[in-house]
Amino acid sequence: MNVVNIRSESLRKIPEKIAFHRLELAPILTLYGRMVAAGEWRDYGISCLRDVAVFSIFKRTAENPLYRIEKRPKLRNKQGMYALIGAQGQILKRGHDLGSVLGVLERRLIRTVD
Q1: Residue 46: phi, psi to the nearest 5?
Q2: Which of 38, 76, 86, 91 has its CA 20 to 30 A from that of 98?
């Protein structure tokens, strides 16, 4: 019996992969589609890891990402679980609400259209 309990304990400690939910992906992909239509972005990638989910945005396919939108649930009660990270690794915006984090990129779209 002790062996079964130890195994079930160890299985509980293994974290699941973090991923974006459909409601989180909808505004990200809407913004992405508008930036593609404006000719600013061309490709994206999604990574689902143990502690973070990353949506990477590329100008060209073979380059480093222009922006990364990260979801880190461990920071939910601290700085906010969403972050927008620039090409050089600088944090452009962090918050609890994905819409406010994406607002930084929304303003760039307005400038692009003008």
Answers
A1: -125, 130
A2: 38
- More confidently predicted of 61 and 12: 61
Choose among 111, 108, 112, 63: nearest CA to 84: 108
Q: Which of 49, 40, 47, 44 is nearest to 29 (CA)?
A: 44
Phi-psi region of 49 (alpha: psi -120 to 50; beta: other; left: phi over 0): beta
89-113: average pLDDT: 81
Give bridge partners of residue 27 from the DSSP assignment: none
Lowest-pLDDT choice from 4-18, 44-58, 97-111? 4-18
pTM given for the model:
0.77
Residue 74, both tokens = 């461990």
Pick the more confident residue, 1 or 20: 20
Cα–Cα dist 106/35, whole Å: 9
Task: Provide the token pair at 50.
Answer: 């143990």
Here the tokens at position 57 are 């945005």
Determine the Cα–Cα distance for residues 84 and 67; give it in Å rounded to an integer. 7
